[in-house]
Each structure stands twice: as structure tokens, then as C-alpha cells.
Design goal:
Largest sheet: none
Oligomer: single chain
Order of helices and strands: HHHHH
Number of helices: 5
Structural class: mainly alpha
CATH architecture: Up-down Bundle
Strand content: under 5%
Length: 151
């Protein structure tokens, strides 16, 4: 099971990020590759407390978390993102592609660095998660969007 807690998986993710180009074409959805880089950055910012998240975890959050993290299926396409993570609404606006990629690399490193210099907050949909679940989520979220752009 791939997770950002595994150095080999982190290296794979880093290499895939290096293959994303501003002009990479999407396979589904509406965001551009540059918006996707900013979206992933915002997602990490929310987790580590640098960006406010609107919590919407409900009674089914635990079941949804288990399915999203452990059922061996790719995440579905077309799931609407939260407004604060949507670059056309409240997400971070893309600026310069290389700078935004560098910022995502910084956030990825901070997310995976031990010891942590932040406290895990609840996921807005899945609720409270253990560190190993956050590492799995981080891998799957990045994998999902890299597949969206052919990487």
C-alpha cells in the first residue's frame, strides 16, 4: 500500500511532480495543471494549519475514510472540491509555475518531515485521522491529480 511515509513512494511522487508542465493537458475535470499544483499546495496548507478549512465531516466520515484510503480502487473523477481549495473560488491563485511547484515541494517536505512541527487537524470530510492515514491520503491525493494530467 503506497504512502508518503515510505521514502520510495515520496521519491516516486517527487519525480512525477517534476514531469508536470504548465501546459500538461487534463484527462478529466476543469482545472489546469497549474491550478492543480496550487490545489495540492492548498490541501497540504489546510492539513498543517496554514489555511483554514471548512469542516464538513459527518456521521459517514469514518466509512468514507476507510473506503477512500483502503479500498483498492482509483479515486473517482468529478468529485467537487471544497470552495477554499478551488482555485477559481477561494484557493490560492497560480502565479509563476516554477515558484508554485517549488512551494508544493516545500509543503510536501513539511507534511512528511519528522518530527512534525504542526498538529494534525481533522480532515474536512473524513474527520480525525491517524498519521498513517494522513500519509496514505497524501499519496492518494497527489496520485489522483497526477493521473488527471497524465503523470
Amino acid at each position: 500500500m503506497k504512502t508518503l511515509a515510505d521514502m520510495q513512494c515520496r521519491s516516486e511522487i517527487s519525480e512525477r511532480l517534476g514531469r508536470v508542465r504548465a501546459e500538461s493537458q487534463r484527462r478529466w475535470g476543469k482545472m489546469t495543471a497549474h491550478q492543480m499544483v496550487c490545489h495540492l499546495g492548498d490541501s497540504f496548507r489546510g492539513v498543517i494549519g496554514e489555511k483554514a478549512l471548512a469542516g464538513r465531516a459527518g456521521a459517514l466520515g469514518g466509512l468514507m475514510r476507510w473506503g477512500a484510503l483502503y479500498v483498492p480502487l482509483k479515486w473517482p473523477h468529478g468529485v467537487k472540491t471544497m470552495p477554499e481549495m478551488d482555485q477559481e473560488i477561494g484557493g490560492t491563485q497560480p502565479t509563476e509555475f516554477a515558484a508554485d511547484v517549488s512551494e508544493l515541494r516545500r509543503l510536501l517536505e513539511r507534511f512528511t518531515r519528522e518530527p512534525r512541527d504542526f498538529v494534525w487537524g481533522p480532515h474536512p470530510i473524513f474527520g480525525v485521522m491517524a498519521e498513517k492515514e494522513w500519509m496514505r491520503w497524501g499519496y492518494l491525493h497527489m496520485d489522483h491529480h497526477f493521473r488527471q494530467f497524465g503523470g
